[in-house]
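Quick log. Single chain, no ligands specified.
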Amino acid sequence: MSDWISSAKADHESGMPYRAIAKKYGKSYGTVWNAINGDKPEVVGIIGDCHMPFVHPNYIHFLEDTFNKYRVTKIVHAGDLVDNHAISRHLTETEAVDATREFELAKAQVEIYTRAFPEVSLCMGNHDLIHVRQAATLGIPKQFVKGFSELWELPKKWTVDEQFIINNVIYEHGINWVGKTGALDKAINAMQSCVIGHSHSNGGCNYKSNSNSLIFGLNVGCGVSVNAYAFAYGKYSKNRETLGCGIVFDSADAVFVPMKQKYFKT
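-> predicted structure:
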């Protein structure tokens, strides 16, 4: 066994995150993971809807702490990385900043998250694609519109798609799968475990089984600042936002981790 691998395993046992180990030894994240774990299944951490620039200021600290606690080896973002409030077809709040300023503020936050999490699989959310839909209303085809990765200058190791399947678990934003059982409904429909975001008020994990299998539907909640003007439409909703994230251990085992009270204290 190479000397660095022995040392890396010792670092891992001491609680050092994989990303820190990779940086310490000048290795890629995947190389470190394979050296330490061999054929063990990956532990996937899922980031909820951020709606930048309206993400909660301490959400990133909660994510870092939670992913380190569960020794996450792969990260997925459930979508709606950005909000695009100012260019939405819906009513713009009177106190809203203009579209250019909102873009600048959101881009600064995107940069913070890409530095903290250099490798992410990002599911496209409905808010992420508002610019494409608005262009379409003017008859402008998407070929004339910047792609999401280019627009937000995402790192090469941030992959963008509508859906990912990792270790037989589906990850997507969850458009049309809403309500308390939205994630489980999607899982039953697909006949395999599924992780979604989209429905901010319904963070949680539900299971369904038969004599042959066990599947789950996990809604990872969100990470938004609930009092931001972008969410004024839901001020009087009976179901408020559930801040948190998700952890998937395998295709039959996952948890929703709520953001604890200490992260709400600034």
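Helices lie at 3-13, 18-25, 29-37, 59-69, 99-116, 130-137, 148-151, 182-190.
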